Amino acid sequence: MKITFLGSGDAFGSGGRFNTCFHVASASHRLLIDCGSSAMIAIRKFGIEPNEIDCVLITHCHGDHFGGLPYFILDAQLISRRTRPLVIAGPVGLSDRLQQMMEACFPGSSQVARKFDTQIVELAAPGVTTVLQARVGAVPVRHPSGSTPSLALRVELDGKVLAYTGDTEWVDGLVDIATSADLLIAEGYTLDRKVKFHLDVETLKSKLPALGVARVVLTHMSRDMLAQQHQAGLETASDGLSLDI
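The structure corresponding to this sequence follows.
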C-alpha cells in the first residue's frame, strides 16, 4: 500500500501547505482520505489521475477536510469525463452537507445528472462498515463540525491497516482505531500546548506505547508546530511525501 500526502496542512495554509488530503493506492483500490478545499490543485500538482480514485473517505465536514468535494465531482463530470462509479463515505449527515456545499459553491450543481454513479455511504460510529473491499472502522471524536459528527478512521485493505485520528483532542476511542496499525497518521497540531479540540504531540506520545503501531506520521501541524517539528521525535508529513506500508 502506498500513501501520498497530497495535503498535510491545517485549515489556514500554515507553511504554505495544502489542506488535508491523502491518496492511498493498494492492489485493489485507489482512495482519498479527506478532500480539503485545495485537493484538486494538489491532485494536479502531484500527477494523480482522478478517474482512478474509487472512493473518498471523509473524517468530518470542515472545509479543509471535505471542501474539495464539489470541485472533485464537477471535474469528474466536466473535465475528466468520469464514467466509473464513485463512492463517498463519511459521517452520518454527509449527504445533506455535501448537497449544501455543492449549492454554496456552484448553485444548481447538486441537481445536474452525471454520467457516473455517485454512492454516498454514511459510516456508523462507533462501528465498522464495508466500503468496496475495505473494512472502515469509525469512532466519534471531539472536534465539533456542525450537524455531523467528526470521526477517526481505521482502514483495513489488502492485508494492511491504516489509521487516522482526524482532528480531535485525545479520546479513548483512538485506541480502537490505532492499535496494531501498520501506519497511524495523527494530528500533531501543537507540540505540548493544549488547544481545545486538537491533538498535541506530547499527549499522543504518552499513549503510543500501549498501541503497538508500526509507524507514526504527524500531519495538520500549526504554524508554531511546524517551527518546532524537529523536537517532536516523530516522523512528520509534508506535501508530496509518499511512503509504503
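The chain has seven helices and 14 strands.
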